[in-house]
Amino acid sequence: MSKQFINGLVSVIMPVYNAERFVKQAIMSILSQTYKEVEIIIVDDCSIDKSFDIIKELMAENKNIFYYKNEKNLGPAVARNKAIELSKGRFLAFLDSDDIWQEEKIEKQLEMMKQKNAAFSYTAIETINEMGNTIKLKKNIKQVVDYNYILKNTIIPCSTVIVDRNLLGDFRMPLIRAGQDYATWLLLLRKGIKAYGLNEALVKYRKVPGSVSSNKFQSLKKVWRIYRELENINFFKSLYFSLCFAVNAVKKHYS
């Protein structure tokens, strides 16, 4: 029997690992949304800092926050999949524990999805540093993308995405340690749907030195593995897509 989702409810998926510096700000940005039909599913990937103490305080005041802790560190894909398993909403939204949403993010994005009958949507971002200061303002994003396009571009940050499970069905992220969000977008778009972009910077994406996303060589290794092992793309096409990815990453960095 297929899972029944609650119509109108947005389930926000948040993996947490040693996020004491930023997690309160991330959660507060969800609680401050103008759209109120929201549940927050937090899966703690065995943090050893004060993340739980911070989350516990917020849970005491907000009954729509649900918390689960893994018994050992299993990686963000497992954490997100557990949160997806526990979620009840028709809509899934993703927010990393160090990013921040603008208060109209959900409302504006759902309205755009309704207008376009979109199953998959994302937004532009503003890049901030560890202190929350802007280091890169919003730039225009491509407003419709398909599977073939994102094979050459990782242009969809996880914290911007909302999907409609009534249109897509239930799903889980591939169980890889890095790049599971990109692999998931490929998995969904491979079904023949398109992703629609809202050209407003409704997410503040925090760039932290030393993170996987900030290491371009590691990113290239990550997408190569996804092409070869998950998408089953042959060597020469994978090489072509990897070169396209590298060129587009350089263009994005300097734009």
UniProtKB/TrEMBL annotation:
Q: Where are the transmembrane segments?
A: none
Segments forming domain Glycosyltransferase 2-like? 11-151
InterPro entries referenced in this protein's UniProt entry, alphabetically: Glyco_trans_2-like, Nucleotide-diphossugar_trans
Record's keyword terms, sorted: Transferase
GO MF term set = hexosyltransferase activity
Q: Kindly give the PANTHER family that the UniProt entry links to this protein.
A: GLYCOSYLTRANSFERASE, UDP-GLCNAC:BETAGAL BETA-1,3-N-ACETYLGLUCOSAMINYLTRANSFERASE-LIKE PROTEIN 1
* Sequence similarity: Belongs to the glycosyltransferase 2 family.
Protein name according to UniProt: Teichuronic acid biosynthesis glycosyltransferase TuaG
Species this chain originates from: Planomicrobium soli
Its taxonomic placement starts with: Bacteria, Bacillati, Bacillota, Bacilli, Bacillales
